Amino acid sequence: MENETARDDLCPLCLTTNQCAVIKNKKPETCWCMKMAISAEVLKRASSNQESCICPKCASSEI
């Protein structure tokens, strides 16, 4: 759909809130994603959808 716009606060994989600290104008180092390892497979899958952050649940998934 041409008129759809991406929401930076939504996970591109499951469309729930991604809980990104940067979107909330907080320091990047305070974000949950800086405290966990995210597999290359999950990152590849997420980046193929769009550029917004993924959520903690999807980040911890095994695909």
TrEMBL record:
Pfam families registered for this protein in UniProt: Cys_rich_CWC
Database matches in InterPro entries: Cys_rich_CWC
Domain of life: Bacteria
Name this polypeptide is given: Cysteine-rich CWC family protein
Organism, as annotated: Fictibacillus iocasae
